[in-house]
Automatic annotation (TrEMBL):
Protein's name in the database: ATP-dependent dethiobiotin synthetase BioD
Catalytic reaction list: (7R,8S)-7,8-diammoniononanoate + CO2 + ATP = (4R,5S)-dethiobiotin + ADP + phosphate + 3 H(+)
Organism ancestry: Bacteria, Bacillati, Actinomycetota, Actinomycetes, Kitasatosporales
UniProt-listed SUPFAM superfamilies: P-loop containing nucleoside triphosphate hydrolases
Pathway membership: Cofactor biosynthesis; biotin biosynthesis; biotin from 7,8-diaminononanoate: step 1/2
SUBUNIT field: Homodimer.
Species in which this protein is naturally found: Streptomyces incanus
Role, per record: Catalyzes a mechanistically unusual reaction, the ATP-dependent insertion of CO2 between the N7 and N8 nitrogen atoms of 7,8-diaminopelargonic acid (DAPA, also called 7,8-diammoniononanoate) to form a ureido ring.
Pfam families reported in the protein's UniProt record: AAA_26
Similarity annotation: Belongs to the dethiobiotin synthetase family.
Residues that, per the record, bind ATP: 12-17, 50, 109-112, 170-171
Keywords, comma-separated and alphabetical: ATP-binding, Biotin biosynthesis, Cytoplasm, Ligase, Magnesium, Metal-binding, Nucleotide-binding
Amino acid sequence: MPVLVITGTGTEVGKTVVTAAVAATALAAGRSVAVLKAAQTGVRPDEPGDAEEVTRLAGAVTATELARYPDPLAPATAARRAGRAPVRPHDVAETAAKLATEHDLVLVEGAGGLLVRFDEDGGTLADAAALLSAPVLVVAAAGLGTLNVTELTIRELRSRGLEPAGVVIGSWPAEADLAARCNVRDLPEVTGVPLLGAVPAGAAGLPPAGFRASAPRWLAPRLDGMWDAVAFRELEAG
């Protein structure tokens, strides 16, 4: 997969940390990696954004950010309030396609969920994925409520003819409750796609060298890692 689009089931589910883990694992496997942040919101010009965070954690990636808006809002709304041009799906697709000619893997990170609007015409990350014919990795929360929103996201991908690559849990708690433990088994059943990893809560707080060394253990072989869903489920079941 030369281009992999990464979306979340909502905000604050660990999308950027998962992107960094995928990048670090691919780099460890000897692949060249580019990361494209389609639209960065809620960050001042002098602050590091998500693309910079991926670089800090993962290492030698080519990081690109198409646009930045100061308000922590959906990109279309943030662009309108800032009086700036919005990012459009074809902008994302064109940039990702160019990066793909120069790298083994391009990771396109969205903003929030799959259908968050980029522009006033209703363009979304899903539209960019369609233009790229790229699979979409869904980052989900661990606990109660995640089954519904994850299944809805996968259904929307399929309704658009897009390929769901799988699901990664973006922040797995140190002490998982009953709902989280059950979700490890239930997520593949309700979505019909594999669970491809679980990133520990607080992973972004690791020293970069520790993050890079650990990342392959959080992701399944399809993402160049060594994480085993069956073994993980049995371990967490106690």
